[in-house]
Amino acid sequence: AAAAGRHGPAAGLDPRWAARVLAAVGTYADVYERALGPGSGLDVPRGLNELWTGGGLHYPVPLY
């Protein structure tokens, strides 16, 4: 999170923008579970929407 504080101001955001977003909506996994996964009633498997370490295509770029 400390590294993210360096990138926000360059985009016109304050250093704590990412922390506020995560606190408000959660991680990608949290959002997926609520909208499409077991928490939604649809129970759509993540499949290719999984992180690359779990067999999917998502590879987050390091913020450092």
Structure description:
This protein has 64 residues and is mainly α. The protein has helices at residues 17-25, 28-35. The longest helix has 9 residues, at 17-25. The termini are close together.
Number of helices: 2
Structural class: mainly alpha
Q: Termini, distance in Å?
A: 9 Å
Total domain units: 1
> How is the main sheet built?
none
* SSE string, helices as H and strands as E: HH
Radius of gyration, taken over Cα atoms and rounded to an integer in Å: 14 Å
Low-confidence stretches: none
The rough form would be described as: flat
User: What is the mean pLDDT?
Assistant: 89
Q: Which characteristics define this entry?
A:
64 residues, mainly alpha, 0% strand
